[in-house]
Amino acid sequence: MTLWRLELLRLWRTQRWLILLAVFASFGILGPLTARYLPGLMESFGEDAVGALPPMTAVDGITQYMGNAAQIGMLAVAFVGAAALAFDSKAEMAVFLRTRASVRDILVPRYVVSTLASIAAFVVGMVIAYVGTGVLLEWLDVGSVLVGTALFGLYLAFAVALVSLTASFLRRVPAVAMLSVGALIVLALLGLVPNVARWLPSELVGAIDVLIRGGEFEFWRSILTTAVLTVVMLVVSIRRLKVREV
What are 106-156's pLDDT values in tens digits? Predict the structure, then answer.
């Protein structure tokens, strides 16, 4: 049995794929529902509450989904990724794997499978959100949605690579996941610095909102930075794990 098949079976049997799917799919359902029915719900609390709420549009069906996906969804991705990439967390398993394969052969399948599972779950949620928005509110430009989805998929690949890098410093799964999420938050906060945001991977999170509102595609800098950092973090992770004592 190859390590690729082993990793697929591990993801399936532990049902971590189901965690990702449940999180993103549920947000895909809630996004359009919130955009469609939140004003009516707020009206039941009084006219003042409705007046304070900005008018909801079809765009909000997608942005509501993206907001949850970029927060709680990323937390789920971090924990699932950490469970796969922090393979040194259990000494017995680490020794078993390291004596039968190189660190690169161990890490790459785990990274690729975790990344693809995260992207697949996100895409399922996006499809649900897009269809729900179209049925309940208005159909949005599918091209903009597809491009925005692809950009967020690249961000997910970056996030899982960051989890891999964190796992080369720490061993415990919860610590790896939480520190990775913290690092993503810090990167997002750096976007408040003028002229820095356009280079940050976190810029890709809001790309779909810009595109479906008719904004121009100005994400080449973020794409370049994200791609380079993803490769660099994976290379550094492999090198650090090679020399780390179990």
Answer: 999 999 999 999 999 999 999 999 999 999 888 999 999 999 999 999 999
Instruction: Tell me the DSSP string of the chain.
Output: --HHHHHHHHHHHTTHHHHHHHHHHHHHHHHHHHHHHHHHHHHTT-HHHHHTSPPP-HHHHHHHHHHHIIIIIHHHHHHHHHHHH-TTSSHHHHHHHHTTS-HHHHHHHHHHHHHHHHHHHHHHHHHHHHHHHHHHT-PPPHHHHHHHHHHHHHHHHHHHHHHHHHHTT---HHHHHHHHHHHHHHHHHHTTSTTTGGGSGGGGTTHHHHHHTT-----HHHHHHHHHHHHHHHHHHHHHHHH---
What integer pLDDT is reported at residue 172 of this predicted model?
94
Are 202 and 188 within 8 A, CB to CB?
A: yes
Instruction: Tell me what pLDDT residue 41 has.
Output: 61
Which domain, by its residues, includes 172?
A: 3-243
* Phi-psi region at 46: left, alpha or beta (left = phi > 0; alpha = psi -120 to 50): left
The distance of Cα 54 from the centroid of its chain, to the nearest Å, equals 28
Nearest to 188 by CA among 197, 179, 180: 197
Closest CA to 184 of 87, 107, 69, 47: 69
Kindly report the pTM of this predicted structure: 0.93
- Domain count for the chain, please give it: 1
